[in-house]
Amino acid sequence: MADQLLSTGPPRRTLPESYIRPESQRPRLTAVESDANIPVIDLSTDDLSQIMSQIRDACQYYGFFQIVNHGMPTGLMVEMKAIAREFFSLPPEEKAKLYSDDPAKKIRLSTSFNIRKETVRNWRDYLRLHCYPLEDFVPVWPSKPPSFREVVSTYCREVRQLGFRLLGLISLSLGLEEDYIEKVLGEQEQHMAINYYPQCPEPELTYGLQAHTDPNALTILLQDQKVAGLQVLKDDKWIRVDPRPNALVINIGDQLQALSNGRYKSVWHRAVVNSDKERISVASFLCPCNGAVISPAMKLTGEGSPAIYRSFTYDEYYKKFWSRNLDQEHCLELFKR
Ligand SMILES: O=C(O)CCC(=O)C(=O)O
């Protein structure tokens, strides 16, 4: 029910019981390290071999990197975040029309992660949209604010193009043909999560989004420029991914970990909240088509590196992912040979 949303109603003064994590699962914010080592890759560099080696290192050791000079118009990124903010300030009755806690729904405004499964909630509302093909979905997207459909569909087109460029570079960086990954993933679906993390009265007791890996192939995240919140796990330590001017954050999803036979990492990441500022983020997910058969690339397996994962369809994987809660083992563990 729509009254579950955090973005309706007045700001809370105390954290409701249902959001409080047990002591051992809290974010321990003071132990989080700065992001000094998260790679930042300039995509405008002429030297392709340099870009590829940076991507290779980033995907192997971090599973995350930031990109700058990526070609996405700065004005569009600003507009996308502005429309996201406007959306979450719509009157409750508008938002109620879109509310659903059914993860199978392709257009839904929801809260936390999967309230049907979880025992403790996350301090987040989100609008989840299917985005490809645009002509199928735009007519059923929210019609308010008035420029929502136009801004978001323009952003989706740009993000898709950028995502394909990155998939080509990732393929090459693995020693595969440039179009290898694109061919395996088939006619890719594209989903979006527009995340809204309100100010939180007790951020040290809860998460905006608890640790998870992404079930898809590649994620492109547009972050709030002023408010940090994303953290990545590296060597058992949480590292902050600080927003950089006009940068986008890229992370490898579970499908690329499987396809690369574990060379590239789909790493745990989480979003934390803070007490004085709300935060917006926009995650775009490139996903294999449902029937795509994912398995480690032959070229990356053989003597000394046997295939770690069995073949599976994305449909099988995605259903498994959403049937579980986030605080379980890496979903790929269930697809090991
Ligand atoms: O808000 C963020 O920084 C992370 C969002 C995220 O991980 C997601 O939407 O899956």
UniProtKB/TrEMBL annotation:
GO terms for molecular function: dioxygenase activity; metal ion binding. Pfam families: 2OG-FeII_Oxy, DIOX_N. GO terms for biological process: defense response to oomycetes. The keyword Cell membrane does not apply. The keyword Iron applies. Its cofactor is L-ascorbate. Transmembrane segments: none annotated. Keywords: Dioxygenase, Iron, Metal-binding, Oxidoreductase. SUPFAM superfamilies: Clavaminate synthase-like. Residues 188-288 form the Fe2OG dioxygenase domain. It comes from the Eukaryota. Belongs to the iron/ascorbate-dependent oxidoreductase family. This is LOW QUALITY PROTEIN: flavanone 3-dioxygenase 2-like. It comes from Elaeis guineensis var. tenera (Oil palm).
